[in-house]
Amino acid sequence: MDQYDQPRVFSLTSCLTIIVFGMMIFVGLFFYFAVRPTKSPVPVYDEKARALMTVIPAPTLTPTVYATRVPQTLEIHYVSEDGLSVGTVVQVYDTGSTGLSVRPQPGTGGYLNFVASEGERFKIIDGPDSRNNYIWWKIESVNNPDRNGWAASDFLRAVQ
Questions:
Q1: Please, what sign has the CA dihedral across residues 21, 22, 26, 32?
Q2: Nearest C-alpha neighbor of 133 from the set 152, 156, 115
Q3: Pairing relation of β-strands 121-131 and 134-141?
Q4: Digit-coded pLDDT (tens) for 24-49
Q5: What pLDDT score was predicted for residue 61?
Q6: d(CA 28, CA 30)
Q7: Is the bond preceding residue 106 a cis peptide, omega within 30 degrees?
């Protein structure tokens, strides 16, 4: 018997049928597992389970305060033996009813602004200045700020 005469167990068409059928099963299984919609697991409520959440605050503008240096001024006021100083209210006295000469500049050599009457009140606004054997204070009328000038301290006394 010839080797070509022997009956074949598998024919060519049966082999091709088996291969096609196997590929169809493979493709079917692939689509079944790869493309099928997944079911989400059923949530189980647990009283002890807690979610942790971290809250990150949004950035905000923080006002910036800059330190400023405030210049400090030191005011030193001279206080005379008679208690006269800048800011003191004084009264004209001991002029012998002739009045007190008030001048635009300290000293006896200048013009007269006006003559202050005996008992008239003034506020000291500047001084002292020492000239012509007198101590001079710039005074301003309590009632009229336009009446001002320099006067000798010998004829002024502090008012209580």
A1: positive
A2: 152
A3: antiparallel
A4: 999 988 888 777 666 656 566 666 76
A5: 78
A6: 5
A7: no
